[in-house]
Amino acid sequence: MKCFELVQRILEDTYASIPGDDDQRMQLVEEALATLATRYNGDVDMVGGLDFDNPVTRFAYVCCYLPAHAHWIYELVQWSRAAQACLARSKVRIACIGGGPGSDLLGILKYLGYRGSSPPALFCEIVDGSLEWKQTWSDLAFSMKWPPRLNTDFVVHPIGSGREWRDPDRFDKADLITINFFFSEIAHLEDAADAYITRLFRRIKPGAIVLFNDNDDPRCYTRFDALALRVGMETLSSNSGTRKAYDQAEQVNELGVFRTKFAKYSPRLTGQVAWRVLRKG
Ligand SMILES: C[S@@+](CC[C@H](N)C(=O)[O-])C[C@H]1O[C@@H](n2cnc3c(N)ncnc32)[C@H](O)[C@@H]1O
Question: Residue 230: which of 202, 209, 249, 207 has the closest Cα?
Answer without folding.
Answer: 202
